Amino acid sequence: MSEFSPAWFLRGPHAQTIWGRIARPRRLVAFRREVLETPDGDELVLDHLDAPVTAREPLHFVLMHGLEGSSYSVYMQGVLAEVQRRGHAATAINFRSCARDPRRVGRMLPNRRPRFYHSGDTADFDFVVRTLAARAPQTRFAAFGASLGGNVLLKWLGEHPDQTMVVAAATLSVPFDLAAGARLLDQTTAGRLYVAQFLRTLKKKASRADIAPRIDLERVLRSRTFREFDDSATAPLHGFTGADDYYARSSSIGYLDRITTPALALNAEDDPFLPADVLPRAKAVASPAIEFLTPRSGGHVGFIGGRVPWRCEFWAEELAVRWMLDHGGTAG
Question: How many CB atoms neighbour CB 218 within 10 A?
Answer without folding.
Answer: 9
